[in-house]
Design brief:
The chain is an all-alpha fold and 63 residues long. Helix 1 runs antiparallel to helix 2. The chain starts with 12 loop residues before the first helix and ends with a helix. The chain is built from two helices and no strands.
Length: 63
């Protein structure tokens, strides 16, 4: 849990967002394979990258 904290000792929103993004990526890939559906990691990666860019912009504007 220490790795998710910033210098002040509070949870860092960017780190938590990145960890959740990885967990969702893994969860979606396992679910798609389990259901026998087509899983295109490139499409998810493009969407995840756009989402992380938007979240990064939000953090920059917030501070």
């Amino acid at each position: 849990m220490q790795m998710l904290k910033n210098v002040n000792g509070t949870l860092d929103d960017g780190k938590v967002s990145a960890i959740l993004m990885v967990l969702v990526y893994l969860g979606c890939s396992v679910y798609a394979i389990y259901k026998g559906q087509l899983w295109n990691p490139q499409d998810f990666g493009i969407g995840a990258g756009a989402l992380m860019a938007g979240v990064g912009g939000m953090f920059k504007l917030k501070s």
